[in-house]
Each structure stands twice: as structure tokens, then as C-alpha cells.
Amino acid sequence: MIPKPQPGEYHEYYQKYIQGISDQADVLDVLHQQRYDVAQLFGRVSEAEANFAYAPGKWSIKQLLGHMNDTERIMTYRALCIARGEQSPLPGFDENEYVTNAGFEERTLAGLLQEHQVVREATIALFDTLPAAAYPRVGNANGSPISVAALAFIIAGHERHHLNILKERYLVKL
User: Fold this and answer.
1) What is the number of other CB atoms lying within 10 angstroms of the CB of residue 39?
2) For 13-165, where are the E strands, in sequence order?
3) 3-class secondary structure for 83-94?
4) Which domain holds residue 90?
5) What is the pTM of this model?
6) pLDDT tens digits for 46-105?
7) Within a domain: residue 93?
8) 3-state SS assignment for residue 130
9) What is the CATH classification number for the domain harbouring 139?
10) Cα→Cα distances 170→42, 166, 174, Å
11) What b/e string do you get for 133-152 counting C-beta neighbours within 10 Å, with b at 16 or more?
12) How far is the C-alpha of 112 from the C-alpha of 50, rounded, in Å?
């Protein structure tokens, strides 16, 4: 079981994601379950509805899912680097620029869902095979300290956050 990170193992910005995962939860179980949650919730969206944005200037449903995929890849990469002892600072990223340049609106929702499943399987494989000594390791990402354990919880909490947004702001308007 991956220990829940303590303050100091991550920038305070990520607190909202980490708090979204129960203290009693095994974050690996959460990551496994979210594969089904994503498939179920995005499965309620037709291809015709997938370019819907709930307000002007907000991402479409496809862009939201693409952002989730990109963010998970980046956070998992950070976890791999830090787990392996990387001492160099890891860069931040501008999520809006990533979405703008990704072309998600030109892809199918089914393709983005398939990608999510593959990305999540890789994430689970990484965290499931790390030695226990790797989880408390702290590196530097985007100018702040972050532990491998914190990254696992951030991935799960970030996804939970966006699934809630999907339910509360998108699906209610379709």
C-alpha cells in the first residue's frame, strides 16, 4: 500500500487532489476502479456530444479527457524519474497550451477512451512495481518538492476532480 503523503511532500496546490482520496483508501485500488468510472461516465456521451463545452472558453468533453490523459502521463513520468533517483529539476507544463496544441477535437471520443485505458494500465504497472523505498523519495517538479507517493495520489485525485466536473457541469447539460 502506498502511504498517503504528508504536507511538505508536495506543493500546497495539490492538496485538493490529495484530500480527495480517503485516508483509508489504497490509492492503487482507486486507480484500478477509476478505469471503470471513466469508461462508464464518458460512455454516456455520444460522439456528437463529445465536442460540447458547458460554457464559452471552457474545454470540450474530448479536451477534458485528453487533458486527463496528458496530465497522467506527465505525473507518471515525474514519479518514474524521482523513484529512480533523478536529482535534476523536472519542468512544469501549461495545461492550456497542451490542450490548444493537441488536436483532441479532431479525434474520436472512443480513441481518447482507449488511450486513457492504456495510459492508466501503464500508471498502475509503474506504481504497483516500485519498491517501498521509492514512495517517500522527494524530487523537484515545477520548482517545488514532490514525492513519488504524492504523485500517485495526485493522479487519482486529479482524475476524481475532473470526473466530478464532467458529472456536474457537462453531463447535466447534455
Assistant:
1) 12
2) 138-141, 144-147
3) HCCCCCCECCCC
4) 24-173
5) 0.97
6) 999 999 999 999 999 999 999 999 999 999 999 999 999 999 999 999 999 999 999 999
7) yes
8) coil
9) 1.20.120.450
10) 10, 5, 7
11) ebbebbbbbeeeebbbbbbb
12) 11
